[in-house]
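Retro notes (design track)

What went well: tokenization of the new backbones is finally stable.
What didn't: we kept losing track of which sequence belonged to which structure.
Fix going forward: every design gets posted as structure first, then sequence, in one message. First example under the new rule, 82 residues:
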């Protein structure tokens, strides 16, 4: 599946998909609401935004993101995906 963005429509990508016999799914452009991981990422982002103090380095941000993701209850993730 892709959203018709240029990187997803590059000739190299088309050739690879064809060589692997992978068919594309119809997917509307800019349709993040149809992608379940977007809802999970939004939940993590909201949790991070409520933290104090904010992170100062990329490594701190990565660690914080992973910690917040790990703390999301599986039931919540299932609900977001549904």
């Amino acid at each position: 599946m892709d959203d018709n963005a240029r990187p997803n429509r590059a000739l190299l990508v088309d050739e690879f998909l064809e060589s692997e016999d992978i068919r594309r799914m119809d997917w509307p452009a800019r349709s993040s609401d149809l992608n379940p991981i977007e809802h999970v990422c939004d939940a993590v982002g909201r949790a991070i935004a409520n933290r104090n103090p904010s992170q100062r380095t990329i490594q701190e941000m990565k660690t914080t993101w992973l910690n917040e993701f790990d703390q999301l209850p599986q039931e919540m993730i299932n609900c977001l995906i549904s």
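Added context from the reviewer: The first helix runs from residue 11 to 19.
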